[in-house]
Every structure is written in structure tokens, then in C-alpha cells.
Write a structure and sequence with these properties.
Helix content: 40-55%
CATH class of the largest domain: Mainly Alpha
Strand content: 5-15%
Low-confidence stretches: none
Oligomer: single chain
Distance between the termini: 51 Å
Number of helices: 23
Order of helices and strands: HHHEEHHHHHHHHHHHEHHHHHEHEEHHH
Amino acid sequence: MSDRTPPPYLTRLAAFAANTQLNDISTAARERARWILADCIPVIAAGMQQPEMGKFIATHLAGAAPGNAWVIGAGKRASAMDAALLNGTAGTWLELDEGNLFAKGHPGIQVVPAAVALAQELGCGGAEVLRAVALGYELSARISRAAQMRLIFHPHGTYGVMGAAIAAGVLKRFNAAQMLELINCAATMGMASSRQTLLDGATVRNIFTGHSGFMGLTAARLVECGFTGEIDSVGTVYGRGIYSDTFDPALAVAGLGEEWLIAKSYFKLHPIGRYAHSAIDALEDLLTRVPGGKLAANDIERIERIDVAAYMLAASLNGKNIVSSFGARFSVPFALASILVHGRSGLKSFDDAAVANQAVQALVQRVFVREEPAYTARYPAEQPVLVRIVMKNGAAYEGNCTVTKGEPANPHTPADLSGKFFELGEPIWGRPVTQQLFDRLMKIEDIRDFRALAGELLL
């Protein structure tokens, strides 16, 4: 029989999740949690418009029990667990979801769908939802930071299950002992998720975040029913060879309550994998050195080659055999080529028509990406990339990225984020509903009952 005494770091995390009140969370962390909620909802709605999601909704809900939680962007409601599954899956489809380099993944889209759906089932207030999102995000991000997860794993569907579970525990008002059991159950309920799905353009990858929400809510239900977990399942899963061989418990609790990883997250304005954003920023810097700020169509035909030197994770997105819209979102060559041909970034630069565009595909083949070890050594504090365009007449242009736009050290403005909200939301809900939703989320503490909100607004 093993020692049944849980390790101190884990009891500390559990007590923090159970006892931390909204006013204990720093102003910066609360504001970031508010924007993460506001960012996730229209991102989910836009992803829900994909044809595969329409079929998934119809098939899944045909045999599901009714409920009050939004299936966001579908104009339907479902039970909390079903809504968390569907919304989480839609939320990563367009690669517009928030992320965190220190957490090594995307905590928000794994926590928010579960928290919002459960709040609409329980009738929780907005302040409770904000607290649940902030704590579920923070603790799961800390656990991921403390581990060195193998690169073969995609981080979605792994520590996100704990984030969703902790958010559920907060909304269900679990005490510290219940929260400890919850973390230990949830840590063992992740997926064997594969990073290769990104490079293959495999859309099964999108279920990983849906899995986090669904299994996080399941974990909370299991604890309510008396199920138990290991004494230290986090240490087992993240330190004994499952996801990782190395886990630092001290780092998981270092600065707890003072340093907030949620406040160090980033937001995305380009619908592509995060590491490719650094290359886009370098391209944008390059274009400021081109007369007129852009390359005309005849100039693009005269490009001899585009060389990209990048940190390792950005350099890994070097695929040139792009056959699908989803695969296009994980290729630096495609991103640079399509943006140059179309004259801008945006959803249309990564849709099926862009993939079929022969001018884009021809330019993709002239983009060459390599890792620069000195850049890798500067990551994640910086995300350096150099882009160099060489013309057939010998002329050359260079541009650099040091800190990617959207990072805390180079943040997007509130106007950027609200613009994204309306750009994604208005085509689906119309201006009045989009405006009402935005206004309510910006003052989320004033929402008295998320169940009533679901009745007021059908998203």
C-alpha cells in the first residue's frame, strides 16, 4: 500500500483553487480572464460554421438530452457536457484561439467552454464564471509550465482537462479536499494527443479541446459520486514518463497568488498556428521597407526566393504540400505566400479557394524555412524570426520579429480585440446581438444568472 499523504504542492494548489476569491485575483489577471472569455465566444461561433461541425452537431445532438447551455454559433442549446464538447471542438477550427507560451499551449479554449456551459446549467453569476475561468486557467497553466512535455504530444486535451475540471469545481463550490480529489482524477483523464495532426492537416485535432471540456465536467461529476484519484496523479502523468519525464513541483507553486500566468497570455488576429505569427510579423516589418508598403502582383512573380530563419517551433511549420484549408493554417511557407498574393491576412487567405490558388502554391515552393539555433535559445522570452525576400534582379528586402504581436510585451490594443469580436460575431448574430453580447461580457460581474443570459440571447 502506498503512502496516502498527498504532496504539499498539490494540497497547496487544491486549497488555492477552493479558497481564492475574485478580489484575491490581480486586476491584470481578472481583466485578462474577461478578455479571454470575450475572445473565445465569437471564435467558437465562427468555427461552428464549418461544414464538419454542422454535421457533428446534428449527429451528436440527435441522441442527446436537452439542456440550457449554448451551442455557440448554432442557435441551439444542449446539456453542459454536450455543449462543452461541441464548443470546445469548434473553438480551435480556425486557429484564432488565445494561447500562452509559458503554459505551452492554449488553456483558454479548454476552460471557457466548460465554465460557460456549466454556469448556464447551474445558474451561476458572472463573477463566479470569471473566477472559475481565471483559476482553472492559472492552475492548469502552472502544471504545464512545470513539466517538459514531449513534443510528440499536442498540448490540447492534456492539461486542459484539469483546467476545465478546476473551473467546474469552483462553480460547484468544491472545498479543498474535493478539489484535491478532482485534480487527481482529472490529471489521468487526458488524451494521447498527437502533434503530427497539425503537420498532416488532420482535423481530428479539433476534438482535443472538446475532450478537455467534456472530460473536465465528467471529472467533477465523478468526484461528486465518490470516485477517487491517485495520491499524486499530476506527478505520475507529468513526471514519470507518460507525457513527460520531468516535472518540477516547486515551479508549479512558485509565486502562486502573486505571479499570474493568465496575465501573460496572447491573443491572435491571424487564423493560423501561433508560431507562424512571428514570421508574419517579420513579413509585415519587411513590407514597410518596400516602396508603397506592398508587393504588386507583377513584383510577386519576380520573387526568386523567400528565406526564413526562425526559432525551432516556428521552423517546424515548414510544410509545402498544402492540400486543405486546415493544413494551410500550420505552414509558414503558405502563410507568407498567401498573404503576399492576397495583400492581407484574414480568413479568406487560408480558405479552400486560397489553397487552390496556383499563384499562392507556386510561391509556396519558393519559401525556405530553417531553424536558427541562436533564435531558439532566445525562446520563449523572445520569438525571433528573420524573413528575407530576394528578387530575380538581385534586390533584397529583410524584416524581423523579436516579440510576436499579441504577447504581453507587444500587446494588441482593446480596439484590436473588440474589432476581432465584431468581425467574427456580426456575420453570425447581426450587429444588435453582437453588441449586446459584447457589452454584457465586458461587464460580466453584473450578470446575475448565466442561465437567464442563455434565455435572453440565443447564440
